[in-house]
């Protein structure tokens, strides 16, 4: 959910460009903004970025992008190896003008790791490598795993119920009766305000929670049950369609990244 406290610029003593480090499970960074653009990559673990436009989730095969001036907060899941790369404002026009998440190719991963691990030996090496990252992102389709949040009070009442219990087994009609709105009205609001169907929104919400469970080592079967799927097969199908790999492959990649 979007933060309600007054955002502030990020203290340079807490986060600095070209930096990285391990953060504990559940670590939360309050709402803030940057005068530069920022890439945040979880080389291990996962993170969410929340703005007034909704929440984006980034497992270890995604990188988050936040343009300058956007108020946002982060939460980290699992023990997270977080890497940060600042993009100067005059270079941000090459990338999308809104928060997003991009797939991480092998080249992009190695470039991000190098930018946050290596000392700059030759003058200009950092800028040249950063230009490679920008070029890669400019050519990469967005894979946002974006969960938009509503403004309409009736719709927000429904999404609040689902946030509280993503595995809740309830039809839109049943949820509507709980909040005093018709199924037809809610269905229309999901499409006009959030740009997707109720079923799609709930699927993305459940995938967000599934990524957290898998990152924390839960089994595929237990994750499927806790997040509301009737069987592991339907969960695997939905997860693969949204994330781009099976939950088992995702967990295997997490293990490989922490070796």
Tell me what you see in this structure.
- This protein has two domains: 8-146, Jelly Rolls, CATH 2.60.120.810; 149-257, Arc Repressor Mutant, subunit A, CATH 1.10.10.60.
- Helix content is 41%, strand content 23%.
- The protein contains nine helices and nine strands.
- Strands 1, 2, 3, 4, 5, 6, 7, 8 and 9 form a nine-stranded mixed beta sheet that branches.
- α1 packs antiparallel against α2 (125-138) and α4 packs across α5 (183-194).
- The protein is globular, with a radius of gyration of 19 Å.
- Keywords: DNA-binding, Repressor, Transcription, Transcription regulation.
- Pfam families: HTH_18.
- Residues 156-253 form the HTH araC/xylS-type domain.
């Amino acid at each position: 959910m979007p933060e309600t406290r007054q955002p502030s610029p990020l203290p340079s003593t807490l986060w600095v460009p070209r930096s990285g480090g391990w953060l504990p499970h559940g670590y939360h960074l309050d709402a803030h903004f940057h005068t530069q653009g920022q890439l945040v990559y979880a080389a291990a673990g996962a993170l969410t970025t929340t703005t007034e436009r909704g929440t984006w989730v980034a497992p270890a095969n995604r990188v988050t992008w936040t343009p300058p001036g956007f108020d946002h907060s982060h939460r980290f899941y699992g023990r997270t190896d977080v890497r940060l790369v600042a993009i100067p404002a005059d270079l941000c026009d090459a990338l999308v003008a809104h928060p997003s998440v991009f797939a991480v190719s092998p080249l992009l991963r190695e470039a991000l790791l190098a930018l946050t691990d290596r000392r700059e030996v030759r003058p200009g090496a950092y800028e040249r490598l950063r230009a490679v990252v920008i070029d890669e992102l400019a050519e990469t389709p967005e894979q946002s795993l974006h969960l938009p949040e509503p403004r309409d009070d009736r719709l927000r009442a429904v999404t609040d119920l689902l946030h509280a219990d993503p595995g809740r087994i309830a039809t839109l009609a049943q949820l509507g009766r709980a909040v005093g709105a018709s199924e037809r009205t809610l269905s229309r609001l999901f499409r006009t305000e959030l740009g997707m169907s109720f079923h799609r929104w709930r699927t993305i919400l459940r995938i967000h929670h599934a990524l957290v469970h898998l990152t924390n080592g839960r089994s595929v079967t237990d994750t499927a049950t806790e997040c509301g799927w009737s069987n592991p097969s339907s969960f695997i199908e939905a997860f693969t369609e949204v994330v781009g790999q099976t939950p088992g492959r995702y967990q295997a990649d997490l293990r490989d990244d922490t070796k």
